[in-house]
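A sample copied in:

***
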Amino acid sequence: MMRAWQVHEVGEPAEVLQLVEVPVPTIRPDQVLIKVAAVGLNFPDGLQIRGGYQIKAELPFIPGSEIAGTIVAVGEDVGSSETGSREVGSNESTWKIDDRVVWMGTGGLAEFVAAPAAALFPMPDNLSFQKAACLPYNYGTGVYALENRARLSPGETMLVTAAAGGVGSAAVQLGKAMGANVIGLAGGPDKVATVYELGADAAFDYREVDIVDAVRAATDGRGVDVCYEAVSGDTFDQVRRCMAWDGRLLIIGFTSGRIAQAPTNHILLKNYSIVGVHWGAYLDRSPSAPRENWDRIIELFDTGKIDPLISSVRPLDQARQGLVDIGARQTVGKVVIAID
């Protein structure tokens, strides 16, 4: 048996998440069993628990999508080697017991999880479990958004909404790593200070300034080349007015709860693009994309250009409160659950 957080009916995490004892998963021939060491919590975890995420989980389910841990059993169809698949760039699915791995999947808020061998990523020796659990979702989305969708170039100016959160803090670091001038928006002076600490060239409290005026002043009236927009609602209505000629406004998510509408005349007159970033669908459509994306993240980590901002590391029994805090926007960076 193992401990796991389970959802039997959709609703608020504080009300429907239950810490229960369930059987350790039985693996299929193409799977491995992972002893979970760390799980990164995300805003979409709360959406899924509430039933508001675009991908509906079959009840009952165990949330948790960013998982780092150690292989403790391998299925009979999983290849084995002395070194496993640790080498960057390898596309093999050879794994062995005691390999340290990362998986972006489901069921992470538990002591063990079964995962398909072909979907695992190797963990470099210099990467801790806690930091590894911060990388796949936020930094994976950021690499895809900025390199594949926005084609961000050195010297361009980039605006990041919710810049102190998990998604936004990763985007700030990635933008700087790619040579951009980065402006961040955050709620409150402490979060603004955090955005500066992440390396931003400018940061504003969206509650205290007129976003359009502040961004225009910071860019000498030109506006921004790229906007990394994860909030939507009223924030989108304002940041679209900050776009420079030929800019790219990236749609990352809708954490405000209101999906904004874009006036097409404004898009035409300012000649900017609104670009969707559906990273999960892209991974499904491009078999080589997940590993290429992971290798790029590790390259940036190894060279010191990115380093996940972790606001707190909590034990498994505090995972529910972690999701509540994220939903209430009471955190910065990443909340990580460490499992003994």
